[in-house]
Amino acid sequence: MRTPQSHTAQLNPPSRSALENLRMPVQAKIAAAWATFMFLYIYVDVLNFFKPGVVDGILDGRLWEFEVSATLVTAALVSVSIPAVMVVLSMTLSARVNRATNLIVASILIPYSIVNVVGETWEWAAFYGFSIGVEVLILAFILRSAWTWPRTAPLTTTAASLDIETHRTEGSK
């Protein structure tokens, strides 16, 4: 069963060229950015396996310069868990705590991401430059979104403006 349309809606159908542009909640923007960061972070690690000698080193019990151990693998798990947990936190924390958490975590992860290039050869500079560059851009977006989080007007101002609008409407009848 169709909902009846108003006379105005029937005379003025929506333009086919205009796209609807709804305001996206800050939490959703930040959560999407963390999800993107997480996928990129993981893909960079997976693609790193294609570097000659990486898999052989892991099979020999060495990851970069470190001996593979429970501590190393746990630290790596914590490292990749941070952006995954931030997706959930960005959608569930209150605005004030959310903003602070995103500012702190993204600020810490920027130098952490940059340090990943230490010890790499110039042959892999494009790979790490691009991947770290995109990671830092995503983290900068998160920082900017959290920093510029819109503030709501104080309740008294909102209530007063609604009251004034009611009087205008009543007076114009």
Strand elements, count: 2
Q: Which percent band covers the strand fraction?
A: under 5%
The helix/strand class is mainly alpha
Q: State the separation between the terminal residues, measured CA to CA.
A: 36 Å
| Secondary structure tally, helices | 7
Summarize the amount of helix as a percent range.
55-70%
General shape: elongated
Sequence stretches where pLDDT stays below 50 over 5 or more residues: none
Tell me, rounded to a whole number, the average pLDDT: 84
The string of secondary-structure elements, in order, is: HHHEEHHHH
Radius of gyration, in angstroms, nearest whole number: 25 Å
Widest beta sheet: strand line-up: 1-2
What does the largest sheet look like?
A: 2 strands, antiparallel
What does this structure look like?
The structure is a single chain. The protein is mainly alpha-helical and 173 residues long. It has helices at residues 7-11, 26-48, 54-59, 70-92, 95-115, 125-147, 155-171; strands at 62-63, 66-67. A two-stranded antiparallel sheet has the order 1-2. A hairpin with a 2-residue loop joins strand 1 (62-63) and strand 2.
